[in-house]
């Protein structure tokens, strides 16, 4: 893996924003062999940058990147070697994806998922599932579906009507990609409208993603999840095999115990039957002997004494014969019993032999299972060792990147401190001006209140002057009424002149007092202006 690939594997950011002024667009083309990835890349660039032929095997054998300028944008395209073929394992897909991402450092802006127009087969569904499993669900936020061989569509119809609306799985895939898709006819490479449509969709995609790009964090997370999933599957498989083994052993043991119990019960019943039969025969023989003996006795008693000896001899002979017959019967019964015992022993030996064969088979299966477990354990240890080695390398690279980031943070912190200090000075200056403004407002409010108070005092003084004036007029009128009529006119004229003089004096006094109060208020707030 290149140094750039290592940097991507230790990247801790899911997406980064490029500088606003950049016009570079990084694209990765993914798809099955024969889907038209290379032809689509050539159509986008407007030239033959990748080899494209109709083969059952992939023309592109390794990830390859090509640069080009299209509509004022600098494009970097990476073609992949049949990345989503079903004969590849998920580890192969993961390795090729990491290689393709490393060619587009720091990360691609968009993935073009190239699909041949036609029936969406189960094989293609499995390939799309591998794509989502390898890149994670976040990769679909950076994906556009490109349908190639657009010349196969009938005139007046769209790919949505002919393919997407008729296939539920394909419709779900397009929905997961945010409804982003377009159609390419690579046989008509001079058609720039399809390239313009694709770039418009990509611009909208980048705008919705706020200019971010896909990085390798999701790939690293997917690898860790894959290892955990494989370990979990292996654990579940071992538990299932162990459970099946226990069930099989329990079934064999139960069957063997059942068969043995049946055999023992049958043997016990046969022995009981033989014992009962033997007892019955013995009772019958004894009964017969007793009957014959009694008959002989009766005959002896009935016969003459002369024949006593002969009868005794005959009785003895008969008794001897009867005993001999009984002995023969006993021997026959003993032979039958021996035969049954021998049959039971042979049956027990046969059952012991079958039991040993069953145990040997179980032991052989146990040894084979142990060998399989050891092989799986060795594979797991190798995988763990490789993962630990990779993790160690990634930790080293991570430390180096952290040192670089730490130095960059220190530099940025210094600039930020300087900017913060300037901001604080501006803030203090603003606060001082704000305080002065508040103080001026408070002084103005005090002056306004003072002015209102002066106005109220002036009105009270005017009211008192009016009342006193009216009292004097009333007294003068009473005095004039007592004097001669000739003096009335003169008195009236004097009163009018006096009234006008008093009003003029009071008004001038009020205005002078108002100007004095206003000048005093302006002087108290620092405004040196004199109003006259």
UniProtKB/TrEMBL annotation:
Q: Which UniProt keywords apply?
A: Coiled coil, GTP-binding, Nucleotide-binding
Instruction: Give the molecular function GO annotations.
Output: GTP binding
Instruction: Give the residues annotated as coiled coil.
Output: 219-464
Q: Which residues form the AIG1-type G domain?
A: 22-223
Which InterPro entries does UniProt cross-reference here?
G_AIG1, GIMA/IAN/Toc
Q: State the Pfam families in the record.
A: AIG1
Family as reported in the entry's similarity comment: Belongs to the TRAFAC class TrmE-Era-EngA-EngB-Septin-like GTPase superfamily. AIG1/Toc34/Toc159-like paraseptin GTPase family. IAN subfamily.
For this protein, the record's PANTHER family field holds: GTPASE IMAP FAMILY MEMBER 2-LIKE-RELATED, GTPASE, IMAP FAMILY MEMBER-RELATED
Question: What protein name does the entry list?
Answer: GTPase IMAP family member 4-like
In its UniProt entry, the species of origin is given as: Solea senegalensis (Senegalese sole)
């Amino acid at each position: 893996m290149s140094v750039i690939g290592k940097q991507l594997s230790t990247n801790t950011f899911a997406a980064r924003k490029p500088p606003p002024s950049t016009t570079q667009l990084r694209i990765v083309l993914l798809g099955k062999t024969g889907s038209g990835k290379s032809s689509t890349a050539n159509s986008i660039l407007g030239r033959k940058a990748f080899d494209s032929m109709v083969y059952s095997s992939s023309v592109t054998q390794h990830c390859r990147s090509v640069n080009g300028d299209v509509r004022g944008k600098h494009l970097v395209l990476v073609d992949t070697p049949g990345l989503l073929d079903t004969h590849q394992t998920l580890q192969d897909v993961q390795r090729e994806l990491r290689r393709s991402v490393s060619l587009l450092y720091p990360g691609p802006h968009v993935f073009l998922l190239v699909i041949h127009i036609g029936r969406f087969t189960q094989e293609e569904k499995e390939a799309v599932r591998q794509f989502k499993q390898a890149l994670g669900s976040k990769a679909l936020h950076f994906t556009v579906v490109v349908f190639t061989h657009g010349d196969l569509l009938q005139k007046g119809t769209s790919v949505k009507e002919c393919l997407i609306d008729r296939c539920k799985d394909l419709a779900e895939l397009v929905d997961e990609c945010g409804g982003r898709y377009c159609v390419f006819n690579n046989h008509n490479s001079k058609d720039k409208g399809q390239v313009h449509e694709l770039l418009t969709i990509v611009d909208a995609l980048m705008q919705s993603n706020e200019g971010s790009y896909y990085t390798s964090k999701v790939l690293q997370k997917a690898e860790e999840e894959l290892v955990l999933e494989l370990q979990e599957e292996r654990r579940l498989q071992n538990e299932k095999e162990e459970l099946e083994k226990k069930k099989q052993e329990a079934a064999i043991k139960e069957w063997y115990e059942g068969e043995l119990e049946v055999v023992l019960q049958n043997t016990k019943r046969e022995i009981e039957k033989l014992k009962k039969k033997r007892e019955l025969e013995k009772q019958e023989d004894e009964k017969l002997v007793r009957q014959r003996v009694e008959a002989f006795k009766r005959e002896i008693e009935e016969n003459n004494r002369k024949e006593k000896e002969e009868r005794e001899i005959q009785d003895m002979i008969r008794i001897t014969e009867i005993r001999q017959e009984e002995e023969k019967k006993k021997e026959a019964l003993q032979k039958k019993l021996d035969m049954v015992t021998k049959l039971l022993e042979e049956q027990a030996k046969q059952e012991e032999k079958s039991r040993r064969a069953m145990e040997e088979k179980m032991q052989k299966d146990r040894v084979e299972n142990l060998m399989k477990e050891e092989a799986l354990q060795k594979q797991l240890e190798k995988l763990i060792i490789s993962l630990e080695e990779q993790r160690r390398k990634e930790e080293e690279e991570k430390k180096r990147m952290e040192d670089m980031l730490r130095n960059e943070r220190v530099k940025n912190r210094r600039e930020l401190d300087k900017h913060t200090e300037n901001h604080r000075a501006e803030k203090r200056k603003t606060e001082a001006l704000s305080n002065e403004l508040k103080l001026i407002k408070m002084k103005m409010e005090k002056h306004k209140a003072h002015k209102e108070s002066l106005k109220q005092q002036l009105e009270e003084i005017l009211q008192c002057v009016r009342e006193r004036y009216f009292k004097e007029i009333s007294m003068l009128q009473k005095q004039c009424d007592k004097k001669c009529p000739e003096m009335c006119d003169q008195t009236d004229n004097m009163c009018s002149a006096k009234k006008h003089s008093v009003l003029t004096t009071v008004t001038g006094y009020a205005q002078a007092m108002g100007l004095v109060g206003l000048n005093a208020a302006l002087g108290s707030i620092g405004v040196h202006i004199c109003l006259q």
